[in-house]
Amino acid sequence: MIMDAFLFVFSLFAILNSSVNLFSKNPSNYGIVTIVLGSAVGALVFYGMYYFIYRFYYSDQDQSQKPPFFKSLLIISAATILWAIVLYGTTFLLPAILNPKLPNLFILVFGGGTLALRFYLKKKFNIRSALTSPRQL
After folding, report:
1. pLDDT for res 135
2. Which one of 27, 28, 101, 120 is at 20 to 30 Å from 21 when CA atoms are compared?
3. Cα-Cα-Cα-Cα dihedral sign, residues 94, 97, 103, 109
4. Interior CA angle at 111 toward 110 and 115, to 5°?
5. Contact assessment for residue 72 and residue 23, using Cβ atoms and an 8 Å cutoff
């Protein structure tokens, strides 16, 4: 689930960032370290949402183990703030030598390939996504 979320967030960042920068007058693209670390932390945030909220929607789960709403909200909020700090820190605090910026067209193609890989792996291995809630019966 974490790999599925990572591939999705990575492809989303890569495709959106590069497509916006292709048509922008003054592009400000993320470096590769920012995209990778931001995607990894974003995947952990999405998995945290699954772990603390969505997994209890399955009918075979013990509802007595479900954490209180405000505890779940606090954990998810803290994880989202951590995600924003990682994105900000890697974008503005890392020097360009450690966070190289790749050409936008390369990042766009790489993001599209990553998204295709995600859908292929989900289909082949029947991976559940941490990004969606289960069906309500």
Report:
1. 61
2. 120
3. negative
4. 115
5. no
- The Cα 121–Cα 82 span in angstroms is 28
Could you give the count of Cα atoms lying within 13 Å of 5 in the half-sphere of its Cβ? 21
What was the pLDDT predicted at 56?
77
Cα–Cα distance measured from residue 83 to residue 79, given in angstroms and rounded to the nearest whole number? 6
Task: Tell me the Cα Rg of the chain.
Answer: 17
Q: Residue 42 and residue 36: Cα distance in Å, rounded?
A: 10
Tell me the two tokens of residue 7. 């591939």
Q: Is the Cβ–Cβ distance between 38 and 90 less than 8 Å? A: yes
Residue 58 CB neighbour total at 10 angstroms: 11
Residues 102 and 111 sit within 8 Å (Cβ to Cβ): no
